[in-house]
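Translate sequence into structure tokens.
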Amino acid sequence: MKNHKKRGFLKLIFNNSFLRHLLIFWKAISSSWRVYLEKPLTVEELRLNREAASIPSFGFFFLLICAAIIATFGLIADSTAVIIGAMIVAPLMNPILSMAFAIVTRNWTLYKRSMITVALGTLSTILIAFVIGLLIPVDVVGAEVMARTKPNLIDLGIAIAAGAAGSFSLTRQSIANSIAGVAIAVALVPPLCVTGLGLGIGNKIVVQHIGSLIISSWDVSVGSFLLFIVNLAGIIFTACLVFISQSYGSFIKAFQTLLIWLLIIALLCGPLTGSMKEFIVASRVQLEIRKLRQEHPEISLQTQVNHIDVQLEGNTAYIMVLANAPEGVITDEYLKSGEKRIFDVLTNMGVKSIDLVIRIIPVRVEEYRGIKR
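Result follows.
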């Protein structure tokens, strides 16, 4: 009966000209796919690979030091391209993935060696950035530094995906080079450099282009180091699950250590959730201010919003808006309409009260036209 149905189905396909040509086209493009069904590395091959990657060698520290210097100067210069280059150079992802492999195979010698390598690499990176922060008299930072001071659940999601991609790439020889792209996505070295810079700069840091915003360097260091811990925990936990799913090691063997890392992630979710709420509220405030400016082009053409900072404490939102404007352009009526708009929107998001501070930096505009010698 089944064979009869199958013959009838094939007859239907070949009697239809479009379906017949579609089948021929499909065979033409998929006939070689079986060649690319690559087998994973053996447990022994991957073990040797991970043991080599876990050794705190001269090459490891040479590349890490170079990456730390590049990243620190890139952060000071507020250059995204330079920071991405440092991510590619940095070899810190390798011993972290070795830790995950050691957990699932209960290779505690490999685990300890990998953990020591990660710890030494972490301290070295922070120390290099700290020294550069002391030597270069800079107390003004840009957006690249500030972007790494408030991690949220999005950063955890990135770390989880990066851990999965990085660990899986190690199990297939043809995609092993993808580890560089994973290192760019998760960014391990830049947060450590921000930590060192924050410790080396001093007590207060001024945010570039926002002259009146001064933040504590300690807050910068703590926030960026928290981002590194989030990345570390997310990568290790997910990499363990991927290794187990690929038949490297055993879930039973890794259960206790996996549970510890899961608890670390659970503890991190508290501050990450708070930062995520602040991120959502800040995004909504930015959207409402953008809409308000679009509705009043006569004001928006003469003004500029430099920075919007949002902090949540319970059900209260503390919002600070920094803007540049010529004197007399921004009226009290305009400010009150904006305040009411923000309050109405955030009330629907569960915010009970708002403490809104608007700082307007006066701008003097002078035009010189028709100047001739």
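Note: The chain has a mean pLDDT of 83.
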